[in-house]
Amino acid sequence: xxxxxxxxxxxxxxxxxxxxxxxxxxxxxxxxxxxxxxxxxxxxxxxxxxxxxxxxxxxxxxxxxxxxxxxxxxxxxxxxxxxxxxxxxxxxxxxxxxxxxxxxxxxxxxxxxxxxxxxxxxxxxxxxxxxxxxxxxxxxxxxxxxxxxxxxxxxxxxxxxxxxxxxxxxxxxxxxxxxxxxxxxxxxxxxxxxxxxxxxxxxxxxxxxxxxxxxxxxxxxxxxxxxxxxxxxxxxxxxxxx
Length: 242
What we know:
With 242 residues, the chain is an alpha+beta fold. It is built from 5 helices and 14 strands. The chain folds into 2 domains: 2-127, Macroglobulin (MG2) domain (Immunoglobulin-like, Sandwich), CATH 2.60.40; 131-241, no CATH class. The strands form 4 sheets. The protein has a 5-stranded antiparallel beta sheet, covered by helices on one side. A 4-stranded antiparallel beta sheet has the order 5-4-7-8. Strands 1-3-6 form a 3-stranded antiparallel beta sheet, with no helix packed on it. 26% of the residues are buried. The model is unreliable at 1-11, 114-118 and 204-211 (pLDDT under 50).
């Protein structure tokens, strides 16, 4: 009877992934320890499953999305109450939302039959800007903008992930104060470059807001964490639309 119960997830093995650190940057890989504890009966383990998750805002609330997932085939037997450790490399993909503002990212771990129901192990992760993203944020601040908010929202386009992370900045000083309401930034980073999509919101009256003539869109791409170079590109574009 114990073997039958464990086969449907009752009294089955438990899994716990332990990360060497919980503050990571996109593109970073860490070696995690996976602790497996046998349940009330001997059990065959074929795979360990891992999924990096986030949530994004929709018109009806929040939905969950899988950033990346993979499985590791183990094919071992764990006895009743037995403890076992495995190691696995966990990589935070480029494009993983940064945990700024109300943004959340977490890792789920499961063992074969558990995965079909609900992985029991959840580990929240802080995702910090890498050198290129930090250089971008610094360049934005150099132009007199201050960080206001960050949110992961349903993507307005139909390709790739169903979400996009938007960073909102407000002009607090410099030449754009009084000219712009806000600067909205969406980034598409890869291992080689970062494409930046901008929405530049000018100060306008009711008529211009109603006609959507107070907003302009632009984009540019950079490869190196060159704060000055990024600032120069950004300044030129924003001036054209201010």
